[in-house]
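Human: If only I could read backbone structure tokens as easily as an amino acid sequence. Underneath my words sits a plain record pairing an amino acid chain with its backbone structure tokens. Take your time, and here it is.
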Amino acid sequence: MVSILDQPDMPERIRRGRLGTGGNSPAEFRQYMLADLVKWAKLVKESGAKLD
């Protein structure tokens, strides 16, 4: 992973892919994760997907 991220073109490729390398606070990350959990829980429930 380190050797891939050390490649000169990686920062630009990451920006193009909207994968940003910037950080945020733990509280902001928590809010993001909670919102993402709600989104995916709703999708799974609506789809009727079940674990085998």
In short: DSSP finds three helices and no strands in the chain.
